[in-house]
Design goal:
The chain is an alpha/beta fold and about 650 residues long. About 30% of the residues lie in helices and about 15% in strands. The chain is built from 17 helices and 25 strands. The strands form 4 sheets. It has a 19-stranded mixed sheet. Strands 1-2 form a two-stranded antiparallel ribbon. Helix 6 packs antiparallel against helix 7. The chain is globular, with a radius of gyration of 27 Å. It starts with a helix and ends with a strand.
Length: about 650
């Protein structure tokens, strides 16, 4: 683990130079000298030696270096905490003291490195086999593959190792959407980008590499998510247990001082004690936390002053304590599925905050003016379960010049105009779009040349105490012109006709059309989009019958995922051979009137999954035991319907409860 701590400590120092340049100007040379000296440890496989149990043989210097860097890390972080609250004179004295301590750290590092072995032997096959046999049930046939996978892990660059281990520990508890994983990896300091490179882009690149190496997989179901593939799922757990760097627990326990990233899942009444060096804390609860947990939370926040990531999910918290404003290192704050209606005023002190996720907050949530002081904020995600789910942001939101993600907002009251100068935005979600600001909103969005994702939801009609889409039409959408680099588009609301500009979106990869209720065929102008991979049509077409012109040969050349929901669709009669040549997953949701799947579906040989929520007569005709239309789907490896799956012996089997 020595090499791991060295790399992370270097990243910490580089991040400080980037974000705290003004405070650290007088000690910049000492910091750069320390970073340079630690470079020589980069080739050492000390983290592998610790995992394989080798460190006890010759690793006293590695243990000493690891312990010293842990202390140095705490000293550096404590210095930043103190410096924020000091007067100019006191800060000058602290910087001078800090400079002396940096010289001392440099000297100690030099002395320790002079005692390390000059040649570090690579991991031996016997060591790897011993590690595997202590973590897996012995299987001679599988061991060769496991050894190969372990070597693949050992040879990964360090930032890819961190990304893989993070996915293994936290995906199931935290949530596995790609953008969500990226935001946490960046905030937790587990990504190191080159000068001029966006940290988020580097994190996406790391995930793509792990996918290409077949270590993790992107899965499409109810939502996009990831899973760690076997055998890396088991291998990474063995590594985690050896290093104690990431910890996931359902128990109230004292956390190892080595741990930096901790997840408590299914927490009951209290939040367990944590160590003061903690960088990330995730807490989720099945039934919410008790009232007594509020006092416990204050103690946790008081103790863990070095937190960079603080994420609460399903806790039903009613408020956050003011102590959260003292977490000057905090870069990520998430309070999803809470009852919070207002954030504490002290949040304006979080000058390093990069992500604020208050999705599904309390009813009538309000965002105060204090958020305008968060100059480094990059991602603001919001949703409240009232009205049209929109959150009203304070005027002046355009002052947040680093903002890349802005989701869940209402664009009236002058906000639509402000959006036009937020040219750094990459993801924008606007709810409750109405006539009074639609033109100004569309005019502003056109200027957002960096925009990659856009979601627009129309203002819904209120009837009998609920909000409906049936008579809620998008205003003036035909006059809209999308930004040229847009990759994901979501339109939620009725359309009079298909916008012609949709057919020219050559960079579009994902399209969600919800409650469009079109009379015309919506695929006519979509089928020639060259890069479209995901198409979701939720009540987009109100016809009862889909014919072969919906999906013609050569159309949708790269479409991999197709999802259709309709209360009125009765039959999809036919599709041409050669249609949907890349389709991998086909999903029907809430199609309870659907009684016919198309002739020609049997020719879509790329199809891997079919999910059905359809009429019982259709299910019977598709049955492998005498179903007259089973030939249409028998080539598909996985077929499911309403909690059942078509198993390999050839019959419908109920899926196990998750």
């Amino acid at each position: 683990m020595a090499a791991s701590f060295v790399t992370l400590f270097q990243w910490t120092l580089n991040s400080l130079l980037l974000h705290e340049n003004e405070i650290l100007l007088d000690v910049k040379d000492q910091i750069e000298s320390l970073i340079s000296q630690l470079d020589s440890v980069g080739s050492f496989t000390g983290d592998v030696g610790r995992i394989l149990g080798r460190e006890s043989c010759h690793g006293s210097w590695a243990s000493e270096l690891r312990g010293m860097l842990r202390q140095a890390e705490g000293y550096v972080d404590d210095f930043i905490v103190r410096a924020y609250g000091q007067t100019k004179k006191d800060r000058k004295d602290s910087i001078a003291e800090f400079g002396k301590e940096l010289q001392n750290i440099n000297s100690r590092v030099s002395e320790i490195l002079n005692r390390r072995p000059r040649v570090e032997t690579p991991p031996m096959l016997e060591e790897i086999q011993l590690f595997l046999r202590s973590n897996f049930v012995y299987d001679e046939k599988k061991e060769t593959d496991l050894v190969s996978c372990m070597l693949n892990y050992i040879n990964l660059p360090y930032d890819l190792k961190l990304s893989l281990l993070f996915c293994r520990v936290f995906l199931g508890r935290y949530g596995g959407s790609r953008d969500g994983v990226v935001r946490v990896l960046v905030a937790a300091g587990l990504v190191q980008a080159k000068p001029g490179e966006l940290m988020e882009d580097k994190a996406h690149e790391n995930i793509d590499k792990l996918i290409s190496l077949r270590m993790i997989e992107e899965v499409k179901n109810d939502r996009d998510h990831f899973k760690v593939l076997s055998p890396y799922f088991g291998l990474s757990l063995g590594v985690i247990q050896a290093e104690e760097f990431f910890i996931s627990s359902a128990e109230s326990t004292i956390i190892s001082p080595m741990a930096r990233h901790v997840s408590f899942h299914d927490a009951d009444n209290t939040i367990p004690n944590t160590n003061s060096f903690l960088h990330s804390l995730f807490v989720s609860a099945k039934d919410g936390l008790s009232e007594a947990s509020s006092d416990c939370l204050r103690n946790v926040l008081h103790n863990a002053k070095l937190l960079r990531v603080l994420d609460f999910k399903n806790t039903q918290l009613k408020s956050l304590p003011d102590e959260v404003g003292k977490l000057v290192h905090l870069r990520y704050l998430g309070v999803r599925h809470s009852n919070i209606t207002k954030l504490p005023e002290s949040i304006s002190n979080l000058r390093n905050l990069e992500t604020l996720d208050i999705y599904w907050s309390g009813c009538e949530f309000e965002l105060s003016n204090g958020v305008l002081n968060l100059a480094r904020l990059r991602h603001l995600k919001m949703f409240q379960p009232m009205n049209d789910n929109e959150v009203r942001v304070p005027q002046g939101i355009s002052r947040l010049r680093n903002l890349q993600t802005l989701e869940g907002i209402y664009a009236g009251s002058g906000i639509a105009k402000e959006l036009g100068v937020m040219t750094q935005l990459r993801s924008l979600e606007v709810r409750c779009v109405s006539d009074d600001h639609a033109d100004e909103l569309y005019f502003s969005v056109v200027k957002l040349s960096m925009l990659r994702k856009l979601s627009l939801t129309v203002e819904r009609e209120r009837r009998r105490g609920s909000y409906k889409f049936e008579n809620s039409f998008f205003p003036c959408l035909e006059s809209f012109s999308p930004p040229p680099l847009l990759q994901t588009l979501e339109l939620k609301g009725r359309l009079i006709e298909m916008p012609l500009w949709l057919g020219s979106m050559e960079n579009l990869t994902k399209l969600y059309m919800c409650y469009s209720h079109l009379s015309e065929n919506p695929t006519t102008i979509l089928q020639f989009l060259p890069n479209l991979k995901d198409l979701v049509m939720w009540h987009a077409y109100k016809g009862k019958r889909m014919k072969k012109e919906f999906f013609r040969a050569g159309g949708f050349p790269n479409l991999e995922y197709l999802e259709i929901a309709s209360h009125v669709l009765v039959e999809w009669t036919e599709m041409e051979e050669g249609a949907l040549p890349s389709l991998k997953s086909l999903c029907f949701r809430n199609c309870l009137e659907l009684m016919v799947l198309p002739e020609g579906l049997q020719h879509v040989t790329t199809l891997r999954t079919l999910r059905l929520h359809a009429h019982e007569d259709l299910i019977r005709r598709l049955s492998p035991t005498g179903g007259v239309e089973n030939y249409k789907i028998k080539h598909i490896p996985l077929v499911t319907y309403i909690g059942h799956t078509l198993s390999s012996p050839g019959f419908w089997r109920r899926l196990p409860l998750q």
